Amino acid sequence: MSGGVYGGDEVGAIIFDNGHQSLRVGYGGEDSPKAEIPTSLGVWEDATENSDSNHVGKKRYNIDVTAIQVRRKDMEIVSLMKDGMIEDWDMFERLAEYTYKQRLHALSEHHPILMTECPWNTRVKREKLLELMFEKFNVPAMYICKNAVLAAYANGRSTAMVVDSGATHTSAVPVHDGYVITQGIVKSPLGGDFITMQCRQFFEEKNIELVPACLVASKDVIREREAPRWTRKSGSQPTASWLSYMIRELLQDFQMNCLQVSDSPYDEDVANALPMKHFEFPTGYNDDYGSVRLMIPEALFDPSNVKGVGASILGVGPLVTTSVGMCDMDIRPSLYGSVVVTGGNSCLQGFSDRLNRDLATKTPPSMRLKIISANSSSERRYGAWIGGSILSSLGSFQQMWLSRQEYEESGKIILDKCA
């Protein structure tokens, strides 16, 4: 390694895209992540005796989809993320170890690593991440990049308005020439988890019992809307956090299969005229769903009708117009000209069309509006990861890496190189 520049062309970089709900990870230059691992871990304590015969609890972790679904009577499900940032560093370390060993089958010291971060990540957390990857995982080089910038790159833009609708929030982030314009970021706390909560309330009002598939031993075939006949699997009673997590998985299945965003502001007559979607629960209960399919996701675009949501919370359309309004006059046309849609909720049918319609009425006549939304849902969902994959394999990016040599010479100050 010469002159502090990492020349790792022959070794594939590893891209870590940290989201609130899952960690997407894989090799740079590929078109989709190798693995998607939940950022919620199963945590419990094993009592071990020390020399003074005192019981000392040793923390144990269950990581990844299959392990989390194993029922243990004392296992809590805990998320290591908060507001899009890493909160529990011990859990993140375990997750990274698991990722290298079990999913990538790679040695951390052989591959440079590109990490994504949310645009509002703090300096302290960035320094902690840098220290962890160099000191604990001995990576040869790393780089930390804003996920909004990478989502713009994935869609072939260096200047864009990135609308990212994920699990905990929806944000509008202006990106200009590969840099985030921090004062223009606008966030709304309405995201996928809020939609899941709305679904849960709807089923509770209808007295439909939500039971995850792993608790159902057997079920009978029944007619539509008939009371389910099923038997519960025997075993210990799981913790409330585990049950809540498994029900959330079930509701997300319902969301992806049934929900749809209305083309225009929600109208019950229009919603009832649309074809219904059939859905069967693990207990065997099944029904056709009509207007509710459009009513629940409507909250993302028009939160004013939702109980318990303050009037100050903006829908997706106003988020964009507010954000553009906070940016310099000169770059507004280029922001309206490339509105990039990314994040898990953008996979909802009709999301981009509705945003286009909402913005078309608000965009000044002198500006040309263009919504950029990848055709496949996986490209929208993994936008930041794909951008990282593209960036890390560019020849011109190779001198941007923060090498171990630079870290040992200068310490955390080298973070200033990461825009």
From TrEMBL:
> What SUPFAM superfamilies does the record tag this protein with?
Actin-like ATPase domain
Tell me one Pfam family matched here. Answer: Actin
Q: Which domain of life is it from?
A: Eukaryota
Q: Which residues cross the membrane?
A: none
Q: Identify the InterPro entries for this entry.
A: Actin, ATPase_NBD
* Family matches, as CDD domains: ASKHA_NBD_Arp4_ACTL6-like (cd13395)
> What family does this chain come from, according to its entry?
Belongs to the actin family.
Please report the name of this protein according to its UniProt entry: Actin-like protein 6A
